[in-house]
Write a structure and sequence with these properties.
alpha/beta; eight-stranded parallel barrel; six-stranded antiparallel β-sheet
């Protein structure tokens, strides 16, 4: 046994065995799990082992303030791995060091849902080959960039090999999905399940008439939910990820991780077991390929944890011109340990679910259903990229100069917020080159974030009372440097009634000097005030 592998395995073995026993208590399955770790370590290319070794020496490398992600969403574009490789130099030059390709694994040809995976060891043929993905990863590594792909581990497509075997009534595979022959069980589960998931008219199970059984399909009828109570599902799925890691993938962005472990006698989400399963995955990666990271939506076991609420809060704030929810959310984020690194993504319309704090909104007599209707109407016809949501895309084509000016301000304001917020900013490629003047400003802000020590992950962070509902202010302090970001999310000029009373500050964009007291901020504008002590 390799000395490096033995050392890593010995370091994590007790915790790994304890967690595995708590979920399965199956010695044979655990032995197979560990055998898989050994085999995939042996198969790991020398070049990737060297990257692992460098990252092990600097275990917090991913917490660097210069981390910035670019979402490509290849599943939405007609583009190949070779196309992406041809522009890597440009992406690197403008400051992106994490490249998220999106869902690129093999999916059914007749289904547009890229998250329904047919084969975890094949890429979609329209993107290229696995060898070309490996070559793309190597090119990223030469530029100190990290390659990310999106995966869903809670279900497979219904034409996955396991699903086909299940339809053939192969007993080895039938227990790899959550199924029942009893329609009453399916109906009882619907009463327990998360009411926000799936089509409630359809329910959480889909009847298979040719086989006379029901299979759990939480999200879509063609997405069969895996049964992680079966240790073989755990073992095989984790091996799939280790295989992909050995092709050069640096980051796995795991979607819908909170629905990983499901139980037909309980509800959709079983957080204790899910956390243990993802912790096992993290330990497996630390043993086999410790340079690889996990990016989760829910579990705190990921090195990156998606701030899944921020997308809804940002667009709510822009629509209502009221920053109360934004401040409450940022107070919560600032209360978490600084080593919890959140990713801040302004996603496509498919991610907008209007999951807001309706309890807090109720204090202002805002009712949930009517508010969702208001938001959907406000953004009707322009859901999608940041350019569409802010009205910039439309204004560029058919708007007046006044429309265009307002849309530009909204667009820039959104990115100022994301770049100032704690965590890693993730930008959608479709928004990267919207207008040269905007592009240059965002580049300047990204460079500032990368270079200025006040953006260190260990910086103190706080929000500030502005005594004006349309404005939002937050501060940072680290090693003698203080930065205040004051933003106006309303369509009228406002004054943020802060009172720092500690002398003059330097405004980073305009260069003007001013005190941080009663700061005037124009409509959809911002002030970035810095002071060195």
């Amino acid at each position: 046994m390799d000395r490096t592998f033995s050392k890593r395995l010995f370091k994590h073995l007790d915790e790994l065995k304890t967690l595995y026993d708590q979920l399965y208590n199956d010695e044979s399955a655990f032995a197979e799990f560990c055998d898989g770790l050994s085999r995939y370590f042996e198969k790991r290319p020398e070049s990737l082992r060297n990257i692992d070794a460098k990252r092990v020496k600097n275990p917090n490398w991913y917490m660097s303030q210069d981390m910035a992600g670019l979402e490509l969403h290849m599943e939405n574009d007609v583009r190949t791995f070779r196309d992406v490789q041809s522009v890597l130099g440009y992406y690197s030059k403008i400051g992106y060091n994490i490249l998220d390709l999106g869902f690129i694994l093999s999916t059914p040809k007749k289904i547009s849902d890229a998250g329904a995976i047919t084969d975890y060891r094949k890429v979609g043929s329209s993107y290229g080959s696995m060898e070309e993905l490996t070559a793309l990863a190597a090119s990223c590594h030469r530029r100190q960039m990290r390659l990310c792909i999106d995966v869903n581990m809670s279900f497979t497509a219904d034409n996955h090999k396991w699903a086909k075997k299940t339809r053939a009534l192969d007993k080895t595979y039938m227990t790899r999905y959550i199924r029942t022959e009893n329609g009453d069980d399916a109906n009882r589960y619907d009463d327990l399940a998360d009411v926000e998931m799936g089509d409630r008219h359809r329910g959480n199970f889909t009847y298979q008439p040719d086989n006379d059984f029901y299979v759990m399909t939480t999200f879509k009828p063609y997405e069969w939910d895996l049964n992680y109570k079966n240790p073989m599902v755990m073992n095989k799925m984790f091996r799939n990820l280790l295989y992909l890691a050995n092709q050069g993938v640096d980051i796995f962005r795991i979607h819908d991780d909170r629905y990983l472990w499901k139980d037909i006698s309980r509800g959709c989400m079983n957080p204790e077991e899910t956390q243990k399963a993802i912790r096992i995955l993290k330990l497996a990666i630390e043993i086999v390929c410790p340079g690889v990271l996990i990016w989760t939506e829910w579990s705190d076991q990921g090195q990156f944890i998606e701030d899944s609420e921020i997308i809804d809060i940002v667009w709510h704030t822009l629509a209502t011109q009221n920053c109360r929810l934004m401040k409450a959310h940022m107070d919560k984020m600032n209360s978490y340990p600084k080593e919890m690194l959140f990713s801040n993504v302004l996603m496509d319309d498919s991610e907008i679910e209007w999951k807001l704090d309706y309890g807090l909104l109720a204090e202002e007599a805002i009712e949930k259903e009517s508010h969702i209707n208001f938001l959907n109407k406000y953004y009707s016809g322009r859901m999608g990229s940041v350019a569409e949501m802010t009205g910039l895309a439309k204004a560029l084509v058919e708007g007046t100069s006044e429309d265009l000016d307002t849309a530009k301000k909204k667009y820039i304001l959104i990115y100022v917020f994301i770049l100032m917020k704690c965590g890693m900013p993730v930008i959608c490629e479709r928004d990267e080159n919207i207008l040269p003047e905007i592009h240059e400003l965002i580049l300047k802000l990204k460079q500032m974030r990368s270079d200025d020590k006040v953006f260190n992950v260990n910086a103190d962070r706080w929000t500030m009372d502005t005594w004006d509902e349309g404005t939002f202010a937050m501060g940072r302090y680290f090693d003698g440097e203080k930065l205040l970001a004051i933003m106006n999310f309303s369509d009228t000029d406002r004054t943020a009634w802060i009172n720092e009373n500690d002398g003059d500050y330097y405004e980073l964009i305009t260069g003007e000097t001013m005190p941080a007291e009663g700061v005037f901020v124009p409509a959809y504008g911002y002030k970035l005030l810095k002071k060195t002590f």
